[in-house]
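Notes continue from the previous slide.

Worked example: a multi-chain complex. Inputs as given:
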Amino acid sequence: MDTTPPASTGEPRPRDAEATRRALLRAARGRFTVLGYDRTTTRDVANDAGVNLMLINRYFGGKQGLFQAVVAASPDPLAEDDSSPGDIVDDFLDGLRPDAWPEFGSHPMLLLLRDSSVDKEIQDLRALAMDKAVARIIASGRPEPGGAASEPGPETRLRAQLVLALFSGVVALRSMAPVEPLASVEADDLRSALDDAIDALIGSPLQSRRSAAGKETGAEHRRST
Amino acid sequence: MDTTPPASTGEPRPRDAEATRRALLRAARGRFTVLGYDRTTTRDVANDAGVNLMLINRYFGGKQGLFQAVVAASPDPLAEDDSSPGDIVDDFLDGLRPDAWPEFGSHPMLLLLRDSSVDKEIQDLRALAMDKAVARIIASGRPEPGGAASEPGPETRLRAQLVLALFSGVVALRSMAPVEPLASVEADDLRSALDDAIDALIGSPLQSRRSAAGKETGAEHRRST
Amino acid sequence: MDTTPPASTGEPRPRDAEATRRALLRAARGRFTVLGYDRTTTRDVANDAGVNLMLINRYFGGKQGLFQAVVAASPDPLAEDDSSPGDIVDDFLDGLRPDAWPEFGSHPMLLLLRDSSVDKEIQDLRALAMDKAVARIIASGRPEPGGAASEPGPETRLRAQLVLALFSGVVALRSMAPVEPLASVEADDLRSALDDAIDALIGSPLQSRRSAAGKETGAEHRRST
Amino acid sequence: MDTTPPASTGEPRPRDAEATRRALLRAARGRFTVLGYDRTTTRDVANDAGVNLMLINRYFGGKQGLFQAVVAASPDPLAEDDSSPGDIVDDFLDGLRPDAWPEFGSHPMLLLLRDSSVDKEIQDLRALAMDKAVARIIASGRPEPGGAASEPGPETRLRAQLVLALFSGVVALRSMAPVEPLASVEADDLRSALDDAIDALIGSPLQSRRSAAGKETGAEHRRST
DNA sequence: AATGAATGAGCTTTCATTCAT
DNA sequence: GATGAATGAAAGCTCATTCAT
């Protein structure tokens, strides 16, 4: 299920099976993320990709295999951005921008939320991706009060999962079940509120987060301390 | 396309049409919330309800009508509990307990999150229910700094929707795409963290919320300011 | 899988599901016996029967179920004719005539020979029918030398199965893989030779068989006695 | 539509085309005889042979051509054994042994019985092979009463075909539609009964056959004359 | 009013085959 | 000559729905 192309060698590949594979994956991503598994038909995917229907079977073994490949190839929903290392909210907001996920077309979290029951292997992939995101959240948060960053306690883990829940909900309420104005506002407009919430849930590395720009706008909403 | 039943008029119903309707709705709720729209077959619903398949068409005009009726009949996901009026977290947690929604079988938010694109009318119903939940959240929060509770500002509305996003995410990550341990913990174990987050997002009515029991356990996680 | 109609009541049956069932079975028999399982398409069967394709699924659960039903409804290939009780050759030859199996359309042995590997249940049905035919052959033969007709010895059983093999071969070489002139001769023209062979294999009840008409024509072919 | 290979000409074959051809034929034989024409897929044959799928088209013009080649290359089902010349039962029984047809893998009669309707050319090939077998049977039998061995009379031909029918039936009931114990007994255990039947059908060359070993065991089953 | 027979559309998958490299 | 990509046709099956009784 490796979807990495063999690097763009200058040769014009035999009849470009790899390009076909990519086209299918790309088309499938769009359909699966927007319509979900059931409403996505292999015919439509093949049409979108401009290739023959049969090649889905040839390359992915069928609809399920195609879905698995899409899930497996989905990027980390909380991909760390090099420009703002460490800040989880920044990275999440980056993923919310219209030009995010240029290769993927749609927020990868949608794939993880929807159609989780298609397949056992899909469930495992989803669980893996979720755990990875949770780990990322924990790593970005304030270190445990005790100090040692070794193993996060259960409460920390739970709170990190609540952060993931919040992020998931935002994605869901912006894409799957749009709620206005949440669905239409700029990503940056969510920063202060999200910062408040995440701070409240898992705290923040005292310097790195607070030093980021423009987070005080929502301060007056926070409870008086 | 009007699928509204004759309602409980005083007329002497033919056989027990209302009971049949209810049985169908009940069966459909279970299937729709757990399996989603597409994986739910009318035959299974009819079988579960123990009635003839045709009655779905008769009473609801078809599968879509049945789904609409289920959505329309779904209770408010943030139904206000009389015992703890005003506290939104309490009400949300109540809805998370296994014995909640005895008449509905599953958390009504699932219906709103899933299959939102089935139908235009469904989208409207969903938007309505969502707005209602948001209003409930706003009402439960701290009054606007300015004072007058009249119309909430856009920022307030957005923050309330983030609270809804958090709630939605929790429901999703507990049911649709289970993430452990979040999916399995008792509802009460989420209280302190949720309290922190909601406080951070929309503040809290200073008295009513803080006076509720057992919210200090997670305090050490909050950022020391 | 009971295929017996509820007797031809005078009522014009609701929309005649039974007639549809029969039409499907009839059409399927023809296709299955002539073309075999694989070359028979459900579409063709439905067309032949003049009914909708779906009803195959409705009534028989699918192609395999239809095939099973056909096999289950196939008459005994060595059905005992009342007019000539006891004589196995007569009954076999009767089954070879063009007007035989009016309800079935084709020799039922074809169904047992072909496509025996479709299904475990099919195999069982075939084995059952075969055993029945063998028992019929044994019963028609000369009693065991020892006298008691109780249980046939293994050698007797084997020889009876060779008789069945001969019959099967005749049917096969007349229908499945026609060999001329065997495929085209009248059934009666096979009598003397078959009589000789069956006599040689399992003997004959001395009176009943020899007293049948016209069996001496082939005598000069038999080994000098 | 000529599928005949370049045959073993003295030319220096390109790679080892002939070996590839043989490998394909070998693989196809196994599949066709066991599974029949329809259940045999070209892909499986190519895989079994370890060659590229396209070569089936190249060398045989397609699936049908491959099947034709297999039928054309199938050995005589009643191949004469040098050690026991003349005795047809011996030769038939030899063909029933597990180690028979080492090059072919399965009894060639199966190919002639099954899938007879695939193709007109197949039918011709089959008819040819059948006629050859019948001629072999006639030749092995007792000479015509009249004396001159020139042309067999129609009755003789018919009886020889019944012998072929018996043989075919035995093969069928041992392989295609197994009937126990016939399917499992040793070939030699069928000798006496088959001898009796063949004798009764076409007589026996008075010396050659009766002098063969162990044929009296089943004599008591024959009718006392 | 209610039952069940009948229907058409659509989906996934399989297969043999042809087309380029 | 040989490889693998690509293709079109067709099959079985499921589903929601409509039609009669």
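Summary box: Chains A and D do not touch (no CB pair under 8 Å). The CA atoms of residues 26 and 203 of chain A lie 38 Å apart.
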